[in-house]
Amino acid sequence: MKTLTVDLGDRSYPIYIGQGLLSQNLLAQHIRGQQVMVVSNETVAPLYMDKVLSQLEGFEVGQVILPDGEIYKTTEVLNQVYDGLLSGRFDRKTTLIALGGGVVGDMTGFAAACYQRGVDFIQIPTTLLAQVDSSVGGKTGVNHPKGKNMIGAFYQPQCVLCDTDTLNTLEDRQLSAGLAEVIKYGIIRDREFFDWLVAHAADLVGRDPEALSYAIERSCQNKADVVVADEREAGVRALLNLGHTFGHAIETAEDYRGLLHGEAVAVGMCLAAQMSEDMGWIDSKATQEVEQACKALQLPTAIPQGLKAEDLIEHMQVDKKVDKGRVRLILLKAVGDALMTGDYPDSALSALLACHCQA
Question: Do 92 and 114 meet the contact criterion of CB atoms below 8 Å apart?
């Protein structure tokens, strides 16, 4: 087991990474009260709920099982968590446990931030995307039909427990979607890691345990370093959104029923690289490196057919990085070096999307 620390003073917490962690007694030390509510979904609960419950003997435990999918990441579905807490008379010393992927983690964390104005929660991410990104850093929230993750809060967990054995039941498409968030770290700040990922793409897609464990550990360390430097995204943390402004627009335009989040981010990273090239900041070789890396990890690199440039631009206007009506984008100065900027001609963005939207 590897243990990393997100160093936020009195709100610091560990990230546990390893095989078989759901069979070890790691949770109890992070639970301050006697009441625990485990939130999962219809896919994950049958696989791993019993292992989590076996660590919670002696506690008063409840369960909320949500439907599975990004389309259910809504305030209406979130009320199921509040209904369970209130019906069971869970108090202010309750700990919520998120058992699932990014949707479950984001919703459970947001419920914890809001219930009785704040109770503890623990992240047990069961997808690669959640293990390397969404479970770390305290971003919580739900989607809205007009914008992804626009309703939420910064709220840190008590710990993050990444049992890499849970990836054994993950579909290949979901695994590749998680690898989009992995390679993102290499593209924005860690060129050495990017080169390693390209060299080990076949191992990662092939689920080599050592390669996956290393990728998770290095991704979490990158994420932890950025979060410690900028917890509430006032500056450098925004770089973690490489590809996300484009990607979120694609997800919203498809009503959260098309590309998976990681797939949409991969397309967004390719668009960001192309726009960086169009601006003269990187050369075509760098753009090709980003696109080829995504393809090697079995990720899409093109905007889905049927989406319109003007619709994507409209959705991009509803983004947390918009400042005074200006969409700020994460672009590249090099592979391994990113910046956030609104300093680009409007025509550059519209031309990019018009060129890449397929009829």
Answer: no
CA distance 174 to 127: 7
Quick count: other Cβ atoms within 10 Å of Cβ 293? 25
Rounded to whole angstroms, the Cα distance separating 106 from 149 reads 9
Distance of alpha carbon 283 from alpha carbon 124, whole angstroms: 40
Q: How far apart are the first and last CA of the chain?
A: 49
User: pLDDT tens digit string along 49-95?
Assistant: 999 999 999 999 999 999 999 999 999 999 999 999 999 999 999 99
Contacts of 217 (CB under 8 A, 6+ apart): 2, 4, 17
Question: How much is the pTM?
Answer: 0.95
Sign of the CA dihedral running 216, 131, 127, 173: negative
Mean pLDDT for 25-33 is 97
Contact of 17 with 162, CB cutoff 8 Å: yes
Q: What average pLDDT does range 279-303 have in this prediction?
A: 98
**Could you tell me the maximum CA-CA distance found in the chain, to the nearest angstrom?**
62
Model confidence at 359: pLDDT above 60: no
Residue 269, phi then psi, degrees to nearest 5: -65, -40
What pLDDT, on a 0 to 100 scale, did the predictor assign at position 311?
95
Which of 251-273 are b and which e, b meaning 16 or more Cβ less than 10 Å from the residue's Cβ?
bbbeebeebbbbbbbbbbbbbbb
Question: What does the pLDDT read at residue 325?
Answer: 85
Phi, psi values for residue 232, rounded to 5°:
-105, 25
> How far is 103 from 109, CA to CA, in rounded Å?
10
Q: What is the DSSP string of 81-101?
A: HHHHHHHTT--TT-EEEEEES
Residue of 283, 273, 288 whose CA lies nearest to 242: 273
Provide the 8-state DSSP code for 249.
Answer: H
Q: Which residues are catalytic?
A: 117, 139, 181, 223, 233, 237, 241, 244, 248, 261
Domains, the chain, in order of start with CATH, read 2-169 (3.40.50.1970), 172-356 (1.20.1090.10)
In 12-27, which positions are buried (b, 16+ CB within 10 angstroms) versus exposed (e)?
ebbbbbbeebbeeebb
